[in-house]
């Protein structure tokens, strides 16, 4: 049965479209235009109460019952277990994948997002914030570069850890990073970029990506509307 994917073309959205393409899982694409405020619609909040995307609804979940899941890391784990792909069965190797997934969810994504925000979208340039998050982005790139000097992919074999991390490296220039400064990370990035399934995942709704925001879009993305529900 087809999975409903609530999605917009951002790094967090790309994680799931890539995974669905990698596993050849049929999915029904439901755009959630976060610049237009679709994430605040009551019906969507029933699926994703934190008013973020992506989210999925699987009509054939555990024991054949429907299930809805928000948070991209949880969705990756769910799809890996459902398809028995891209996560090892061996407990030791499995937790290696999970720890790098948590590295992305808890550190890499939030910090790179802040670097991108203060460098590109903040209404005023705040030198301290720009330096703080650009430097932290560089440090995290260094962590990945060191790890990838020892293994081909982040957790050894290609896994959901790579699918979680890769989309956040795509906008490296906006984060103030030069991949040439991180040769092992650059090698990994170029290898994954050549996967046709990854290209297909990145292409989903790619024509909808917005480069400029009006005030309404800025409010929907960065404002306080979520506290007014």
UniProtKB/TrEMBL annotation:
Keywords: Transferase. Gene3D superfamilies: 1.20.1050.10, Glutaredoxin (3.40.30.10). The keyword Transferase applies. CDD domains: GST_C_YfcG_like, GST_N_Ure2p_like. Residues 1-87 form the GST N-terminal domain. Residues 90-212 form the GST C-terminal domain. GO terms for molecular function: transferase activity. InterPro entries: Glutathione-S-Trfase_C-like (IPR010987), Glutathione-S-Trfase_C_sf (IPR036282), Glutathione_S-Trfase (IPR040079), Glutathione_S-Trfase_N (IPR004045), GST_C (IPR004046), Thioredoxin-like_sf (IPR036249). It comes from the Bacteria. SUPFAM superfamilies: GST C-terminal domain-like, Thioredoxin-like. Belongs to the GST superfamily. This is Glutathione S-transferase family protein. It comes from Okeania hirsuta.
């Amino acid at each position: 049965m087809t999975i409903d994917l609530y999605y917009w073309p951002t790094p967090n959205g790309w994680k799931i479209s890539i995974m669905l393409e990698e596993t050849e899982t049929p999915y029904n694409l439901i755009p959630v235009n976060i610049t237009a405020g679709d994430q605040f619609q009551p019906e969507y909040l029933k699926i994703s109460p934190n008013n973020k995307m992506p989210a999925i609804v699987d009509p054939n979940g555990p024991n054949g019952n429907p299930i809805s899941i928000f948070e991209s890391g949880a969705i990756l784990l769910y799809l890996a277990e459902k398809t028995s792909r891209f996560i090892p069965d061996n407990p030791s190797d499995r937790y290696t994948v999970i720890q790098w997934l948590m590295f992305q969810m808890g550190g890499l994504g939030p910090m790179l997002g802040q670097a991108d925000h203060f460098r590109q979208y903040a209404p005023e340039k705040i030198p301290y914030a720009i330096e703080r998050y650009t430097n932290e982005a560089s440090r995290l790139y260094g962590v990945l570069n060191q790890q990838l000097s020892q293994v081909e992919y982040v957790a050894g074999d290609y896994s959901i850890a790579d699918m979680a991390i890769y989309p956040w490296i795509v906008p490296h220039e906006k984060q103030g990073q030069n991949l040439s400064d991180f040769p092992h990370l650059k090698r990994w990035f170029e290898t994954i970029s050549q996967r046709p399934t990854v290209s297909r995942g990145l292409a989903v709704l790619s024509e909808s990506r917005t480069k400029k925001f009006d005030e309404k879009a800025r409010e929907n993305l960065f404002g306080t509307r979520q506290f007014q529900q």
